[in-house]
Amino acid sequence: MTHATPIPRDARTGRLALALHLAASSLPVLPLRAGKGPFGNCPTCAGNACGGRTNMRTPGPCVCRRPCHAWAAATTDPDVITSAAWASAWKHAGVVGYHPGGAGVTVVDLDDADAVAWARTVLPPTRTVATTRGEHWIYQGTMRSANGVRPGVDIKSLMAYARWLGPGTGSLAVLPEVVRALVVKEPATVRPAPRTVTVPAPAGGGECRHRTPAYLERGIAMAEQRITDAASSVHATAYRTFLAVLSAHGRCGCLTEAHITRLFTAAQAKGESPRHCADAWTNARTALGM
User: Fold this and answer.
1) H/E/C letters for each residue in the chain?
2) What is the pTM of this model?
3) What is the pLDDT of residues 73-92, one digit of tens each?
């Protein structure tokens, strides 16, 4: 994906020209409505005539010869982009969309200032693109897409589409485990676990090798707040939070019993038992191969 490629001046004169330019840079594109929704890009589906019920995982029940909805319509083929079937869609399109997974990237869609503040504390720096209310953080690599992984945060990668809002700033970083962990659900069957939790001994005087002590402190504070703010599904929230903390700091030896106690205390204040906290922590470590 070549987000940093400058857009020629003539591409700015129309969405179709922009789409062709992006497609030439191996970015699969599609037209989106002003409200960010996709078009049915063929006569059979024009005006939502097919009911918009196409299954994007396995195309159908739409009878089109090729997928024509949402991310499945995204293409780099200039003949398709300029075809008569797509002409009306480009005429009425509000924005150019693209398929992040098809371009080998993942977009962390931060929908408001609070989500952006969280990302700046927890996620490694990468290429960022300003949106109307927040930012897109773009990483090299693909994963399962999911909406609402935390307040104001969506993940757009495989089988999803995003708006093209410009090349952004910064260099692409490799998709980190802390982002992958956001869509991991705790297994329904919980393995028996001891009530006590053993963590790696602190290394480097307790300082994280790739971050500062202040970064770790902010991360723990944000994790406590995330658990405290949970209005429902406290157990699942605690598990995902433990997973994110371990993803960021579990392998560098900077976590101490005091940090873990703070997380457990926050979870127990929301009704979790010590055993459930220990089980969730152990399952998170197992999921990460720790």
Assistant:
1) CCCCCCCCHHHHHCHHHHHHHHHHCCCCEEEECCCCCECCCCCCCHHHCCCCCCCCCCCCCCCCCCCCCHHHHCECCHHHHCCHHHHHHHHHCCEEEECCHHHCEEEEEECCHHHHHHHHHHCCCCEEEECCCCEEEEEECCCECEEEEECCEEEEEEECCEECCCCCECCCEECCHHHHHHHCCCCCCCCCCCCCCCCCCCCCCCCCCCCCHHHHHHHHHHHHHHHHCCCCCHHHHHHHHHHHHHHHHCCCCCCCHHHHHHHHHHHHHCCCCHHHHHHHHHHHHHHCCC
2) 0.58
3) 788 999 888 888 778 778 88
